[in-house]
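Handout, section B. The chain below has 240 residues.
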Amino acid sequence: MSERTLRIGALYPDLLNIYADRGNLLMLQRRCAWRGIGFEVTRSTIGDELDPDAHDLLYLGGGQDRDQQLCALDLTTVKKDAVHAHAARGGAILAVCGGYQLLGHHYGLQPGVTLPGLGLLDVHTERGEGRLIGNVAIEVEGRTLAGFENHGGRTILAPGQEPLGRVLAGHGNTGSSGHEGARTGNVIGTYLHGPLLPKNAWFADWLIAAALGIDPGELAPLDDAFEDAAHAGARRAAGV
């Protein structure tokens, strides 16, 4: 597969980066390199135009409230059409925490302050009482994702919107819905940090395959002893 290259557009890596979620990009880079797949990252921040055809995967992390406000304005004006066009042609998107909230319709950050969203996921987020913090595990199509959550927002899925997974342990989107994250096609939002991908190698491979437009079974198998141990540790931490 050496002729293939995974092209990633990292959105606002200078602002949406407070939970070490850049480790997700490193995980993708290493798993591509071990398989002989090329890997390119293009960083796009405030004011930068985005080419909707230049990336296989767009990535957004989480950030502080002030930085999230700056990104929301830019994302829904400068980059909105390009991100929608990317998703419409089947491009993959992974958005974590604050990035997840910005994929919905809006986020009621505080009284009188509502951040606009892209509306790629049929969800909206409101600020709740206290924060939902701790180890978390969810079931996704019969497999387990494990990580860590820390969010003050409560994300409500509209009827018909598919969640990413079912909560096995932890809080998830609202603390009571039993759902975590949201997914529409290759567009995925989640509150799972950890970082997410180093603790869930199978999901990293699913994401690589989805972005490249191939079946995960086409990816060469790897020796995942260390990755499996990290996953098992994350599951134990969550109590599953």
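Note. The domain at 5-238 is CATH 3.40.50.880 (Rossmann fold). Compare this with the example in section A.
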